Amino acid sequence: MAEPTRHPFDEALELTQAADGLLHGRTTPAYANMVGPFGGVTAATLLRAVEHHPERQGEPLALTVNFVAPVTEGDFAVAVRCVRTNRTNQHWIVEMIQDEVTVATATAVTGRRRDTWSDTEIQAPTAPPIETVPVTGIPEFIAWAKNYEFRFAEGAVPVEGAGEVPGSTTTLWVRDRPARALDYASLAAICDVFYPRVFLRRGRMMAAGTITLTTYFHAEAHQLDAAGDNYLLATARGNKFHDGYFDQSGEIWTPAGELLATTHQLVYFKD
Amino acid sequence: MAEPTRHPFDEALELTQAADGLLHGRTTPAYANMVGPFGGVTAATLLRAVEHHPERQGEPLALTVNFVAPVTEGDFAVAVRCVRTNRTNQHWIVEMIQDEVTVATATAVTGRRRDTWSDTEIQAPTAPPIETVPVTGIPEFIAWAKNYEFRFAEGAVPVEGAGEVPGSTTTLWVRDRPARALDYASLAAICDVFYPRVFLRRGRMMAAGTITLTTYFHAEAHQLDAAGDNYLLATARGNKFHDGYFDQSGEIWTPAGELLATTHQLVYFKD
Predict the structure, then answer these.
(1) CB pairs under 8 A, 24+ apart, for B14-21?
(2) Residues 166..205 of A with a Cβ closer than 8 Å to B: which?
(3) Is B105's CB within 8 Å of A120's CB?
(4) Residue ranges of the alpha helices (H) in A14-133?
């Protein structure tokens, strides 16, 4: 009997514990970006490295990933250090290394959740039902984007000749392609599926890349299980664009209106 | 002639390079919180340690501080590592250590800014003129708050018997007390002046503390100079409260409507 085909996301995130104490992995062509891999898969890899750690307790609460140097296609190692275990949470420092050069750093917090008063204060964006929004592409030369189904409700990738627009909000239904049950790693990656907000504002593409990405995970494991392989509603907007940088904030929602993650990043651009 | 009195903020941030390669400092009673020092002053200290580094190039762009363990009153050391120097930016890892225990970690990005297309997409909050909003206190037992003048336009600290409210937005005019010319370190601290949003929603105080704090600096040095020692308009709101945690997002503006920083944090609470 043939082995079941692994999902390309799981292939990209495969890590092997080696005798040097590091986790070893390899970038995959499926998640290639213009230069190196999709930042979302790098973020997911560093989070997965924490999840794999034998001392890890609790679920991911927060992740900050710094894109320090271009990640090149090929082998990498991940060093995970548990900085501190508290009663209810743990703090982590993670580094991705290629040829003895640190190419990405991360800090993460994992922790136990306990039932308390709760409320979601921000509002989910409005979007037409999933099936009424056509699946649209991201430019063909972006390999990683082929691993997602994008249904843009607002703020699709600007086409040739698009003019400037006054707002940088993109709202889309998105899921892994092929469909895959949601977990913290794939949620971390989905937090980075927004193409650079400056493209939308300026109506054209230009050099741009995430410098640092922070995600707060609001989903408990059972909520991820319930989300399954369905679409998620992802929305992001830029806050301030200036001097070659902009920051954006975004949220990831279930179709039922549960907020799974809030995510922020600082991006450089050359206009 | 008597020496000019140093500002308490500068006293709190004093760091001395020692033979062990670490920067040595000491918490000051002026910035004490319920347990250990005000998180904002810890964030400012870690940023200042990066600013002090002889290899540092460019201005602060981003800072993530993780509050790993309670900081105790007394001596601490700060280890600063320049992970990478790129053409236009640098990546840093910073640790605060007390008695060989890491009590805070940070990653920071510094970089050169260059003139590009710019736009501030988010709107400044509306607030009455500074002089029409009375200076109000934070409860007396919070020592650090005495180092700020708070003029709450919206969402002041709930008083005894306050009920629940549906929104967690606080907007205030704030500046150092005594007044002090703004710099990146003091801006980093001001990003953490918001009392826990859950107090406002629930109408009462409870145990709460920041776990991780991320700030994006949008101000160039000349904008900080122009801001001087005037009040800043600070606003923050919670996004989702659940399972003992909430996240908040905020912005710091000049009276003229320039956005100096956007700031996000994840906070634990016990209700």
Answers:
(1) B15/B45, B15/B48, B15/B49, B15/B52, B15/B78, B17/B52, B18/B77, B20/B77, B21/B79
(2) 167-168, 201-202
(3) no
(4) 39-52
Nearest CB to A212; choose among B86, B109, B118: B109
Beta strands per DSSP E along chain A: 16-17, 23-26, 59-67, 75-85, 89-98, 101-111, 119-120, 148-154, 170-176, 207-217, 232-242, 245-253, 259-270
- CA-to-CA distance for B74 and B98, rounded, in angstroms? 9
B29 Cβ partners below 8 Å, 6+ apart?
Answer: B73, B143
For residues B233 and B171, give the distance between their C-alpha atoms in angstroms, rounded to a whole number: 7
**Contact flag A84-B61 (C-beta cutoff 8 Å):** no
Element (H, E) at A198: helix A197-202
Q: Which residue from B136, B126, B99, B236 is spatially nearest to A121, judged by alpha carbons?
A: B236
What are residue A80's DSSP bridge partners? Answer: A94
Q: What is the C-alpha radius of gyration for chain B, rounded to an integer number of angstroms?
A: 18
Can you say whether the dihedral through the CA atoms of A90, B250, A151, A198 is positive or negative? negative
Write out pLDDT tens, residues A135-161. Answer: 987 777 789 999 999 999 999 999 989
Place of tokens 């005000």: B38
Alpha-helical (H) ranges within chain B are 8-12, 39-52, 184-190, 197-202, 221-227
Which residues between 61 and 100 in chain A have a beta carbon less than 8 angstroms from any beta carbon of chain B? 61-62, 64, 66, 68-69, 83-84, 86, 88-89, 91, 93
Start-to-end CA distance of chain A, whole Å, equals 54
Closest CA in chain B for residue A122: B239
3-state secondary structure of A121: coil
CA distance B132 to B148: 18
Residue B134 is given by DSSP the state P
What is the structure's pLDDT at A171? 98
> Is the bond into A178 cis (omega within 30 degrees of 0)?
yes
**Rounded Cα distance, B236 and B66, in Å:** 19
ipTM of the complex: 0.97
- Predicted TM-score (pTM) of this structure: 0.97
Query: To which residue do tokens 């209106």 refer?
Result: A257
Output the average pLDDT for chain B. 96
Q: Dump pLDDT digits (tens) for B214-240.
A: 999 999 999 999 999 999 999 999 999
Tell me the one-letter amino acid at A14.
E
Closest-approach residue (CA) in chain A for B67 = A91
